[in-house]
Amino acid sequence: MGNKKILYFDRTTEEFKAILLGHKPSGFDLYFWHEMDDNERERILPEVDYLLAATHKTGEEIFSKAANAKFFQKTGIGVDHIDLSSADTYGFPVSNTPGANATGVAELTILMILALYRKLPLMNRTTKSGKWEMWEHRPTSFEVEGKTHGLIGFGNIGRQTAKRSHAFGANIIYYDAFQAASEHEEALDAKFLSLEEVLTQSDIISLHIPLLPETKGLIGKQELELMKQHAILVNVARGGIVQEDALYQALKERKIAGAGIDVWEQEPPQVNNPLFDLENVIATPHIGAGTRDTLNRVLKTAFQNILRVEKGQSPEFVVNNVKQPRERKVSTE
């Protein structure tokens, strides 16, 4: 019997490809979607045993043709790019890798908070241009200690962020669809409040929730108007959660002090996105989990789950309604 086949859907660099291959278990071959032409894709899809992707948009076009694939493994957390109803229809369990990216996203959140509070991009640019603005920005620069950090979403990533913010001396409050276990609250002296209370009481607000129908456009004009004028907003969750037009107006009119944006309504965003013109915005290209350390954890979890299924067990971390791996339908040997 030949090696099992894993099909990876996202684009890779040579360095990233080497990391993927380094994590691949023995007894498996890894194929790369973006290295194939259309005919090769049509040929390989019915043959592969496992589907693996990070952010590739996946739906019926893939699920309907992957006749022998056992399940779909997502690297990372968010599954808004996967048509879960289609996965259900074609009998695919869809798994993610919870917790593996929490440290990277939490650290980026703290980095953005500090950079906004100390105007780091501005200071870097003006200093290199020959200006010596040693005193000009002190009245509008801040420390984290003693501030109230409101987290919207208190799962793995939210709690890891709160842990770091609490270490800086921030007071932790949070809103989530579900109140956290008491031990999590006690460890961080965190207080569970309503969304409105978090918005009105926080000096720092960071988002750590999935993009769902009920969270799409959650932060709009009304919510931004509830925030303090000196408050900052950091979005490392999903772009569709924040209404960008409303955020632009709030920032331009200085109704809030600043924003760190790692995720966008459209990715990549248009080059003329008006948020790019604002000095009080830090923009990054969805790199919350973009570290070598996170990648190693995510791939380890993903490939361990594939090995689990290959041994006849059910996949872990399934996010849709199908819990058991599919049976192979035809032989392609």
Automatic annotation (TrEMBL):
Ranges for domain D-isomer specific 2-hydroxyacid dehydrogenase catalytic: 22-320
Which Pfam families does the UniProt record give?
A: 2-Hacid_dh (PF00389), 2-Hacid_dh_C (PF02826)
**SUPFAM superfamilies attached here?**
Formate/glycerate dehydrogenase catalytic domain-like (SSF52283), NAD(P)-binding Rossmann-fold domains (SSF51735)
Ranges of residues in domain D-isomer specific 2-hydroxyacid dehydrogenase NAD-binding: 111-288
Q: Which UniProt keywords apply?
A: NAD, Oxidoreductase
Presence of the UniProt keyword Signal in the record: no
Keyword NAD appears in the UniProt entry: yes
Q: Which GO terms describe its molecular function?
A: NAD binding; oxidoreductase activity, acting on the CH-OH group of donors, NAD or NADP as acceptor
**Domain of life, source organism:** Bacteria
CDD domains recorded: 2-Hacid_dh_11 (cd12175)
Instruction: Check the record and name the InterPro entries matching this protein.
Output: D-2-hydroxyacid_DH, D-isomer_2_OHA_DH_cat_dom, D-isomer_DH_CS, D-isomer_DH_NAD-bd, NAD(P)-bd_dom_sf
The entry sums up its family as follows: Belongs to the D-isomer specific 2-hydroxyacid dehydrogenase family.
PANTHER family from the xrefs?
D-ISOMER SPECIFIC 2-HYDROXYACID DEHYDROGENASE FAMILY PROTEIN (AFU_ORTHOLOGUE AFUA_6G10090) (PTHR42789:SF1)
- Which protein is depicted? D-3-phosphoglycerate dehydrogenase
Q: Which organism is it from?
A: Thalassobacillus cyri
